[in-house]
Amino acid sequence: MSHVVLGFRTGTTSYEWSSGDVLEALIDSHAARYDRARDIRDLKRIVTDMQASVGDPATFFKYNWALHRRIAELCRNAPLRGTYLALIDFLEFSIDRAEFSDFDGPAMIAVHRDLVEAIDAGEGPQLDAAIQAHQPRPR
User: Fold this and answer.
1) CATH architecture of the domain covering 9-134
2) Which end of the chain has fewer CB atoms within 10 angstroms, the N or the C?
3) What pLDDT digit, counting tens, does each position of 76-101 carry?
């Protein structure tokens, strides 16, 4: 999935994440509604792990997906959570064939750190802006 946050390209195939973007915005909103202090500590720890692996894109994305799985755990809508996690399962399964030509680890760290801070702050303009920043950019 040629995506600034959750994506990559495999060989000559790129995957669009547009349905994932919609699901992700809903998941993030649920997370902001239901998170607790320990959840935020867990999310911040995973972002720290992402930052430590910024030189290794494959490992970085493993932490990235762990972060998104942990965010999804906060969603109380089981069908929504399950569908979103199935998409992450597909990404994880495809990692061995991934190319990371557009990988910008420092920028991705900033986007994810802001997303976690916005989830902690709750629903509102900060979360809306973080979700928007987390969306893929047109090429």
Assistant:
1) Up-down Bundle (1.20)
2) C
3) 999 999 999 998 888 788 777 777 77
